[in-house]
Amino acid sequence: MLNNVLIWSSLILAVFIGAEKTGDTRYTGVYRGKTLFIQNPYDRESSSFCITEVRLNNRRLNLNYGSSALKIDFNGIEENSPIALHIIHSDSCQPIIINPDAIAYKYTFAFKEISMNDSVLVWSSIGDQEQGVYTLDAYDYGIWQTQDTVLSKGKHEGATYVHFPKLKEGPNKLRLKYTFPSGDYIYSREIDFHYYEEPVTFAPKKSSTSLTLSRYASYEIYDGGYNLVMSGSGASIDIRDLKRGDYIIYFDNKDPGVFTKI
Hints:
Structural class: mainly beta
CATH architecture of the largest domain: Sandwich
Number of helices: 0
Helix content: under 10%
Mean pLDDT: 85
């Protein structure tokens, strides 16, 4: 995963980043659209080949472990997506990545963290460049669809972002895409989560200036004749331009409430 990626001046060194110990070798990087080959030495002590299992993004691969070379095709993984490779092998041998450039990470940019807190998406990165762009993708109806874009802060030393994505009740899947000024791009890890929003409440019920919401939400305000007079989204609403009187307010097309502009 990209938050494990350290920055190295060498492409090959950028591949060898996971914690290593005897019999357990890990690599992290980015799928570059190429097949990866792993040399699988014959272990004379055990009279078997070195590698017993390979896991890609925590999924066991069905490979011919009785072969001197293993081929990783990255089926189902999109180019420029983060990958984590876990190789389990005999204590007395060491597998070798034949073409490390296939998963080499060549930029000084990395997603450090990406998480959801209720309805809030928070991520941090290092290596931000001016004119870089983050794109938020949501997985819906079997395809990735662009939901929103966020301009880079251009802080190479590190930056944190807070965003309110559009969520549906039930399962959601999101990812971020960072596009460099050159046009190259890289994806964050995917986030799977379930979302069931809490009903929106607001206060005060009588106000001359503003309403404060219990959470960020989209809203529509109707007058006594059920005419739409205001709409938008946010965690507070400025009602100073409304005429005095009673109003009905809907949050996220539901949860109606009533307030009075005084």
